[in-house]
Amino acid sequence: MFVDIMINTMTLTVRFAVALLIASLGEMYNQKAGIFNLGCEGIMSMGAFLGMLVPFMIGGADQVPGYVNILGLITGTLCGALLGLIFGIVVITFRAPQGIAGIGMQMFGVGLAGTFFRSYIGGSQSITGINASAIPVISKIPIIGEILFTHNAVVYFAYLMIPVCYYIMYKTPWGLHVRAVGTHPRAADSLGINVNKVRYQSLAVGGAMAGFAGAFLTLCQAKMFTADIIGGRGFIAVALVYFGQWHPIKIFLGALLFTFAQSLQTQIQIFVPQFQYYEFLTMLPYLLVIVVLAFNRKSNKFGPASLGKPFNREMRV
Amino acid sequence: MGKFNEIKELRLENIVKRFPGVLATDHVSLTVGEHEILALVGENGAGKTTLMNVIMGLYQQDEGSMFINGEEVHFRSPNDAFDCGIGMVHQQYMLVPNMTVLENIALGMKDCQKKVKVDLDSVRAKVNEISTKYGLKVDPDAYIWQLAVGEQQRVELVKTLCLGAKFLILDEPTSALTPQETDELISLLSRMAKELSIIFISHKLNEVKALSQKVCILRHGAVVFQGNTKDYTPKEIAALMTGHEVETSANTEEPCNGNIAVDIKDLCVKSDRGFLALDHFNLEIKEGEIVGLAGVSGNGQRELAESMNGLRKVESGSINFYGTEISNLTPRQIIDLGMGYIPEERNIEGIVPSMSIKENIILKDNETEKFSKNHILKNKEIEKYTDEMREKFDIRSPHMHIAAGSLSGGNIQKVILAREIDRNPKFLVCVYPIRGLDMGAAEFIHKQLLALRKKGVGILLISEELEEIMNLSDRIAVICKGQNQKVLMRDEASTSKLGILMAGVKDE
User: Fold this and answer.
1) ipTM surpassing 0.85
2) pLDDT at B465 exceeding the cut of 90
3) How far off is chain A from B90, nearest CA to CA, in Å?
4) 3-state SS assignment for residue B6
5) Is residue B21 part of a domain?
6) B417 or B399: whose pLDDT is higher?
7) Is there a contact between A313 and B77 if contact means CB atoms under 8 Å apart?
8) How many Å lie between the alpha carbon of B85 and the closest alpha carbon of chain A?
9) Does residue A186 sit at the B interface (CB-CB below 8 Å)?
10) Quick one: pLDDT at residue B449?
11) Which chain B residues have any C-beta within 8 angstroms of a chain A C-beta?
12) Do B139 and B62 share a structural domain?
């Protein structure tokens, strides 16, 4: 039984870590550019709703052609980018406090998605979504084959984003600009880099990735939408960025760890139903995040020093 | 490369820049020719930096125009200034600490950003070319946070030159350097002036004399004087700068022989970053004596002041204060023993900026019977007392109800002084007391310190201004890497001697 639990847990971890991974990689861009977007949860919620809406409008609960599901993903992604830009107007142009604006964005996104859901879809409906398919041959490798190669295409695409995000952040001119405006915006400004433009761009990218993560949840994971489908993943994503110290690889490890704890507790609930206090099990992954954050080495050398501070060139200190 | 092959002349005409409620520059006109070094001199808040930010396109002027070689130019962003060959080294270095030297330079070089991947190899080649040409050594792969202040400045210079600057603006480039580093910089700049034009902002008049051909003095945003540097003495320039004759007070008394007030033995204290900022530091200070502690900032001064006031944990060693061991006591206990403290960051540590001047003045004594009864503040007494303080310490403010944070630096320092001095401390720890103050305010503060010394109070004066230290101190200690290098009597000390000690070289 133990082996079954572990194989199941790891297989689920690989699949379920995706939403968290993509959302936190997006949040990483926001924070590296100096803005922390607590509204991630709300953006994911809208992404999740649109990810469901597009295939549902076209085909209802029936099987729809693959491109319709992809269209759902794209719609969620674009909506996320748009919401990121709206958040940008609030915190960059109007310099609203980011924490408060983020909470606003979270409630706005979750509320809007819930309202639209009620008026356009109604009760709980499911879609076929994007299904997992085992990759021939290599999925037959014992243990590893099942854990790694029995997922849908979007999962592999998501993992490809880790090196891509790393490359963009550390090798491209845009990444250079993002890192500069989040740490020392005045320095960037003195070199003719438009600080606020870069921040808007990073919010669009971060929002898009949160939207994608939300759409992934409905299309590939739950195959349905509920008002609380995100279930705090947006906030966990924000926490994971701190946990991973703004580095894509460490963020990836954090997402894996959290999802592993999450999957393990569901497996324990399934395999050991006689354990009564399942609420405690549900709590475990979140507890883990708090404990790990508390003991995380606090290093500000590599962090974005201007995180949370609006930029105003003519503000004389 | 660039819009102009050479800059024969940069001319400003009637530049006006306003900030809400402030006229930062007031119809400023000036001209700098090719291979010329112009010193721009003025007190804090005179508008020097604002004017330079206008030249760089960081600020847009409200009125006036700028000409290069007689042709009018408009800079909308620093990119436009770089294109015309103008570059600036800001007073606060514009370097991103968690990026490498190369990345910082690449940030400004548009040529290396044209492909998907940043072309760091071309940046490296350019950096090597510039550093060989001017003898500016930098490690291209070091992170900025790993570099000392002097090295960071070299990076700034290399960066500016890599961006193609033929016209350099340097905003107080020597403010964080040791005397030796300053000398090196000055000789470097005079060599560079053979190929470049330079505007050099400073209020250290000996540097102005050593380096510049022309001097331009700003006061309250307006040009009050322009002329050839060699025709004027530093004293004349100082008088023009402040608008009145400057007298400097100095300690001329005999060295005293009082009881020992503070005895610090083998003190070890950690910095925020976790290394030993004070490493077996020893110093004793007598009653009625001013001991100046010279050193480049960041060598343990902050940690010393904080541990003496209970604000930082002492790892080992002792601080004996009139017979009481005060290491690791709480700040309140140390205050009650008679310690006074003028902290480094006057806006953050010295006052609570959002509270009124009145409240800030009684902050240390609000629980005494003088100011409160049954835990309720005695408002009338406080008003009366703080009005006296305003008179006595010349705090320039219409009344004492306004927020202390809205005062100028000099007046904030006077508020702190009023609080610390009038409670009759037995000892005073004084950290960078005149940093960023104009000459008038600095002079006032020095007079107060000398008066306190006469009353028998021991003073530890931590400063990076050697002139201040040599004028006021009875004895001078030099701190480097958390250790007391040497203690000199006032008449033994000279700038060069102290400079060598500050750089970490022990003689003998």
Assistant:
1) yes
2) no
3) 9
4) coil
5) yes
6) B417
7) no
8) 13
9) yes
10) 94
11) 19, 56, 58-59, 77-80, 82, 88, 90, 92-99, 103-104, 106-108, 112-113, 116-118, 143, 145, 163
12) yes
Nearest to A172 among B96, B107, B118 (CB): B118
Question: Do B54 and B118 belong to one domain?
Answer: yes
According to CATH, what is the number of the domain A2-124+137-295? 1.10.3470
Instruction: Tokens for A94, please give them.
Output: 């109007």
Sign (positive or negative) of CA dihedral A248, A253, A258, A260:
positive
Identify which of A280, A286, A287, A271 has the alpha carbon closest to the alpha carbon of residue A6.
A271
pLDDT tens-digit series, residues B310-340 = 999 999 999 999 999 999 999 999 999 999 9
Query: In CATH, what number is assigned to the domain containing residue B87?
Result: 3.40.50.300
Domain count of the fold of chain B: 3
Q: Per-domain residue ranges for chain A?
A: 2-124+137-295
CA distance from start to end of chain B: 53
- Does B150 share its domain with B95? yes
Asked if residue B505 has pLDDT above 90, the reply is: no
- Classify residue A127 by its DSSP letter: -
Q: Using the 3D structure, point to which of B211, B242, B273 is the last residue of a domain.
A: B242
- Are B15 and B74 found together in one domain? yes
Question: What integer pLDDT is reported at residue A237 of this predicted model?
Answer: 94
Residue labelled with tokens 């919620």: A45
pLDDT at B1: 45
Answer whether B217's CB lies under 8 Å from B51's CB. Answer: no
Angle A21-A26-A28 from CA coordinates, rounded to 5°: 95
**pLDDT, tens digit (0-9, with 9 covering 90-100), for A42-64:** 999 999 999 999 999 998 878 88
| pTM (2 d.p.) | 0.82
Could you say which of B212, B242, B272 is where a domain stops?
A: B242
B94 with A313: Cβ contact below 8 A: no
Whether residue A91 is predicted with pLDDT greater than 50 in this model: the reply is yes
* Residue B450 shares a structural domain with residue B396: no
Q: What is the DSSP letter of B111?
A: G
Residue range B114-124: average pLDDT? Answer: 93
- Domain range for B401 is 352-424
Q: How confident is the model at residue A72 (pLDDT cuts 50, 70, 90)?
A: very high
Identify whether the C-beta of residue B316 lies closer than 8 Å to the C-beta of residue B405.
no
Q: Is A190 on the interface with B (CB under 8 A)?
A: yes
